[in-house]
Amino acid sequence: MVSQNVVVSDAKTGIITVSAVSNSSVFTPSAQKPPTAPGYISISKKKLLKNLEINGAQSQRLTSWVDSMRASSPTHLKSLPSLSAQEELNSWIKRHPSALDMFERIIEAARGKQIVMFLDYDGTLSPIVDDPDRAFMSSKMRRTVKKMAKSFPTSIVTGRCIDKVYSFVKLAELYYAGSHGMDIKGPTKGFSRYNKDKPSVLYQPAGDFLPMIDEVYKQLVEKTKPTAGAKVENNKFCLSVHFRCVDEKKWSELALKVRSVVQKYPTLKLSQGRKVFEIRPMVKWDKGKALEFLLESLGFENSNEVFPIYIGDDKTDEDAFKLLREREQGFGILVSKFPKDTSASYSLQDPPEVMDFLRRLVEWKQTQQ
Known about the structure:
The protein is an alpha/beta fold and 369 residues long. It has helices at 23-27, 45-71, 82-95, 103-110, 139-151, 162-169, 210-224, 251-262, 287-297, 318-327, 351-367, and strands spanning 3-10, 14-22, 114-119, 154-157, 175-178, 183-185, 202-203, 231-234, 239-242, 268-273, 276-281, 306-312, 331-335, 346-348. Strands 7-6-5-4-3-12-13-14 form an eight-stranded mixed sheet, with helices on both faces. Strands 8-9-11-10 form a four-stranded antiparallel sheet. The longest helix has 27 residues, at 45-71.
């Protein structure tokens, strides 16, 4: 009997030497374990294959995550051949035409109904910036949103915590749904004519998760500290790990760090937005549910007399877009300069176009009075 090394070839990693065993123990069952050669680790073939399967799945998941991280960066689309990119954009615009170009059609569909506005913040009312603490909206946008709130019930629906987004918006007459809708608050009493006869809105479906969120926040701050450019944001009922300023070569490493923390908490889920990881409680609640709750709070539950318009730029806004399609009421408008898979009906390119659209809505409303 000749003792030899057992090797397993893997297409991705090359050849891995596992252990030294005899020929007979490789091909025939044996009651006794062969001696392990010095410097090698004894491992059964079944266990080895299982480990390789697990590692392979993890590698595939990581690759998928990194691909998704790249996809969240519109700059990668610029590497496509210009003709191909333009054809793709033209095709996408046909399916999701500009809300400015289709304004008259939108107004016609809304005629005789109560328009209710839902607005994301980052990338919709303010530009996407490297430092999330400096995502300020312009004074012109603030004035436009203020006029909007006088004309229609208006809500900000954001992944940010309410206190943070309020410090940017500074308008007491709005409804705010922070932490992806898990922290909902109505207008300050006396500031909005739409909640005069209604009780103050306050809803927090994930309140029990606050201690866990704080605990995970501290771990993520510590874990990501060595990664230059990474920033962890505590949004009260959810967490964000921003990688907009992280070197792309470090994205895989950062993804592994974030996953290593979150996987210890089975009641939290990890998702990804525009150059940001989102950590949220596993509750059946999202921006779509928040939209539904706010419509109910305004007295439009199961109403055919309401026309919701939701404007957002991120993956998390898709829940709201899908809900509007399911209700067959109102429209979703995606803010993007590049083709994206979306359930939104229309598109706008950037915050300046959003402001133009809101202004036109206000002007149209004034002509109806």
